[in-house]
Amino acid sequence: MNDAVPSGPLLTMTGMTKQYPGCLANDHVSLTVERNQIHALLGENGAGKSTLVKIIYGVVKPDEGEIVWDGQKVTIQNPGHAQRLGIGMVFQHFSLFEALTVQENIALGLGSAKERVGLRERIVRISNEYGLPLDPDRVVHDLSVGERQRIEIVRCLLQNPKLLIMDEPTSVLTPSEVRKLFVTLRRLAAEGCSILYISHKLEEVRALCSAATIMRLGKNVARVIPAEKTVKELAEIMINMDLHAPTPRPLAPSSAPPRLVLDKLTIRSPNHFGTDLKDISLSLKGGEILGIAGIAGNGQSELMDALSGEILAGKPESVMIDGIAAGHMGPHERRRIHGCFVPEERNGHGAVTTMTLAENAFLSGFTRRALVRFGVIDTKKTSAFAENIIKVFDVRTTGPKAQARSLSGGNLQKFLVGREVLQEPAVLVINQPTWGVDAGAALAIHEAIMALAEGGAAVMIISQDLDEIFVLADRISVIAGGRVSEPVLTRDATVESIGRLMGGGSAPAATGEMEIA
Amino acid sequence: MTALLVAFLVSTIAAATPLLLAATGELVVEKVGVLNLGVEGMMLAGAIAGFATANETGITSLGVLAAMIAGLALSLLFAVISLTLQANQTATGLALTIFGRGFSALVGAGYVGIPAPTLPKIHLPVLSDIPVLGPVIFGHDILVYLSLAILAVVAWCIRSTHLGLILRAVGDSHDAAHALGYAVVPIRYAAVAFGGALAGLAGAYMSLAYTPLWAQDMTAGRGWVAVALVTFSAWRPFWLLIGAWFFGALMYLSLYVQALGVAVPSALLSAVPYIGTVVVLVLISRDARRIRLHRPAMLGRPFQARV
Ligand SMILES: Nc1ncnc2c1ncn2[C@@H]1O[C@H](COP(=O)(O)OP(=O)(O)OP(=O)(O)O)[C@@H](O)[C@H]1O
Ligand SMILES: [Mg+2]
After folding, report:
1. B306 in a structural domain
2. Of the options 3.30.365.10, 3.40.50.720, 2.40.30.170, 3.40.50.300, the CATH number for the domain spanning A258-502
3. Looking at residues A6-11, what average pLDDT do you find?
4. Which end of chain B is more exposed for a tag (fewer CB within 10 A), N or C?
């Protein structure tokens, strides 16, 4: 890519320090990325990874520290400057334009008119080639997080960067998408692009990255070669504790009464290009966890919204919560009859980012936690509720008064899951429960979900992460094209059999799209 | 009957022109996510600057230029306070309107009741003499055609050019635009300045063409209607045009009914165009999805580049 024979590392950072109010996010951190290297940046939630890469990209201004780029000392002023230096970034919380189409979003990432010639065809071709199919004409607002993630990645790849920073790009991709992405990334690295890769999926990191910098509480703790360590060792360096597998749970007795029943649930998607739900019938007993697997954009968000009450079903009887017809009820009424919901989009949907944690806890918990007294918010109780979530789910933050947007991605996720679990629901539906949380926190969330089920609640997990579904669920269904397959017992299912269903038909013959490693 | 129809159409188009100019400017401003409620003030500043300049120099085109500069100057004041110093946009815009009214009244005190050179109506041989069509299509002054041309260019630019895409992007998410390397604040400055110049031009149309004199508060709330048009047309240029013409038509009809001497209080009749336009536009653009797609999500929100 660059003509002069380059030598020395591509990027060296030393002594990077960033103080937020009440939180030292980076404390004299160093990082060196070699040329042609795929370098991992690891650390638990809130370790300061996103902060460090935002400094590289000029979004966050460091208090101290020196950056040497391509042999030159630089002060990166803003993202425009970073781009001109040849740095591209895929953000953890997307930076997309909701009201614009996929093509427009990508065009905005390409500086010159020359690069935009024939863009439409290139998007279709490249996105298919990379295994991240995109429809250029769809409006981002209507897309699921998995589809949004694809846009971010494709946009960045089209910029031909010298350093590609990816902040948790695979948390919402399916295994087959991830595999194709890795092929692309390896090819890019071979062609001379360095990659700085942040992920909590340590298996991936071991397969992909040739070096890793590990952070904890804002400081460097180690620099390792991932392939030389086991996943467990890596996780233990990261979070400084041992990990154990969650204890298996007995299956719910078949005599238990159903708590969540869907009867021929049929919904027209309110989004132009959304997926309509067709004749979905499912029944969940108390004490049972049902996993819904599927590729992003096959009706997951519609199913979530139809369950939470954001989209109302035509027939009240098509959604029954604890024997009560709830299809016509909005979210608060459904909460009142013991249904709780965690949507996938944590910024803006799950949480109001400019409000405090206590306020966010109130928004969802006020009915079930009786946080309103005589029409007035009971601030003491609300604050105590938020405090309790923070404690039980080990959310790293300064307290209930912190703004939701000041939390690191994984910590906000822990808070939102905790907020619903602690309301002791009879029915809990979670979309992507461990999106972006570290190994320790994922375990904690999994244990909380299992404990909830053991206490008699019916839990539905919608996830693109098959490993997670296999760990948690008693039965697995696959959603494809707005239809849900007959649930199978997890112990009778294999990753291959589920993967085939995700591709579409139930026929055993797999086409290229469907095969799952 | 034909004469009546011609009078109706001609005056509808004339009455719509200042609205169209000001609203087109405000549309661009709001598209980049800025809410400038100072349109009325900028129009008044433009009206008096244009009138005074034309009156002193005897040259109308200089008046038009001065009006645009006055509107632009006020809008830059707004931009410094609300974009650079990040004061609340609503409050700043309201203050700008109050300032523009006071300032124009002060400067205009000496110009009340005296004539100034008027913007001439164009006359094309043959074309302008066609019955009905001639006066309705070919018999206006230059600003009428300019207002339509500007609207068409703005509509095309917003929908089909990369520049327009950048404007929409900044209005949709300033953080994402910044993250992609776009200079959010300078882009907003440019849009606000464009809106200011057009508001000034709208003022010039009022004092040099529509009612060629200066009277205090002569825009009579048209700046506010322009702001309302932008919102209620759901940020779509075509509906802006329809709304402006509708306002012009109601304006003529209410004057006509008053002239007939119908026993309706004249204050009520004068209010009809304002209320009617808003009601009709609200009815047209009720579609929540359409509004969501076109409404700039960042409208009125301050932007901070670095944390
Ligand atoms: N704008 C902000 N204001 C205050 N504190 C902040 C802000 N942004 C981040 N922080 C804090 O800085 C710390 C590091 O956050 P960062 O986002 O870098 O973590 P991370 O390593 O990316 O975590 P995750 O894996 O959860 O994404 C966190 O404790 C977070 O609460
Ligand atoms: Mg992060």
Report:
1. no
2. 3.40.50.300
3. 84
4. N
Residues in chain B with CB shorter than 8 Å from the CB of A18 are: none
Q: Does domain A11-239 have CATH number 2.30.30.30?
A: no
How far is the C-alpha of A178 from the C-alpha of A470, rounded, in Å? 18
Beta bridge mates, A372 = A377
CB distance A79–B172 less than 8 Å? no
The pLDDT value recorded for residue A243 is 66
Pocket of ligand 1 (CB under 6 A): A 20-21, 23, 25, 43, 45-51, 92, 396-397, 406-411, 436; B 307
d(CA A61, CA A75): 9
A363 burial (CB, 10 Å; 0-12 / 13-18 / 19+) is middle
Q: In this structure, what token pair is assigned to residue A457?
A: 């609640």
The partner residues of A128 in beta bridges, in order of sequence, read none
Q: What is the pTM of this model?
A: 0.80
Most ligand 1 atoms within 8 A of CB, residue of A406, A435, A445 to mutate: A406
Whether the Cβ atoms of residue A133 and residue A62 lie closer than 8 Å to each other: no
CB contact under 8 A, A79 and B307: no
B193/A322 Cα distance (integer angstroms): 60
Query: Which member of B172, B181, B183 has the closest CB to residue A99?
Result: B172
What amino acid occupies position A506?
A: S
Of the listed ranges A254-258, B125-129, B165-169, the one predicted with least confidence: B125-129
Give per-residue pLDDT as tens, B156-194.
Answer: 999 999 999 999 999 999 999 998 889 999 999 999 999
Q: A108 — contact with chain B (CB < 8 Å)? A: yes
Q: Is A60 within 8 Å of B306 when comparing Cβ atoms?
A: yes
In this prediction the ipTM stands at: 0.87
| Residue owning the nearest CA to atom 5 of ligand 1 | A406
Distance of CA A407 from the midpoint of ligand 1 (Å): 5
Alpha helices in B32-173 (DSSP H): 39-57, 60-79, 89-108, 133-138, 142-160, 162-172
